[in-house]
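User: I'm putting together notes for a lab meeting next week and I want to include a structural view of one of the chains we've been expressing. I don't have a solved structure, so I'd like a prediction I can at least talk through. The sequence is below, exactly as it appears in our construct file.
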Amino acid sequence: MDDDFRSAMSDVAPLGEKVKKKARHEEQLREAKKEMPRAVSLTQLERRYAALGIDRTPKVDPNPLTLGDVPALEPRDVLEWKKDGVQHQVFARLKNGQYPIEGSLDLHRLSVREAREAVRKFFRLAEAKRWRTVLIAHGRGEQSATPARLKSYVVHWLGQMPDVIAYSSADRRHGGTGAVLVLVRKSAAAKEETREAFGQKSDPD
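Assistant: Thanks for the context. Below is the predicted structure for the 205-residue chain, given as structure tokens.
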């Protein structure tokens, strides 16, 4: 009978041994968790990037003017365009060079990318100084591998600017078909000053 009892209990470990085994297993789990990488939240990631001086803000190009393909012009094409509402007499005076040129920009020897940035900054300056008529010398590019390339881009860029209300190739003394005269919309502040000069006041909103 003693032999039968010992055989039945051969796989039974003492209670104290079971407790020790469970404790060892739990300790192994804790150690394994320590080795696992801790999950990081988006907020924590942003804080870490900020601490390291890494800017994760998406880069937005402040320049809306295109660098993509644009319709190609010929070097000696004459430019003429005006928005609806621009009086014929005003446009005729622009074409004939009868408005004083208040600011000018020379794009010769610039790449398209450089010219794009120069045009953007130039029109910001024109807005700040309230210029109405400006001149952009883009050249004809007759000797270039892609003739009139810069001229083509300038014309396209002018069409992307809401404050440009008319443009025309310059007269011969200002560069002819290698330059363009641009008429800029009068700012709201300038319009108000004109009304006040004539004794008028705008209606309150």
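A couple of points you could mention at the meeting. The beta strands are 80-82, 103-106, 133-137, 164-169, 179-184. The mean pLDDT is 81.

User: Perfect, that's what I needed.
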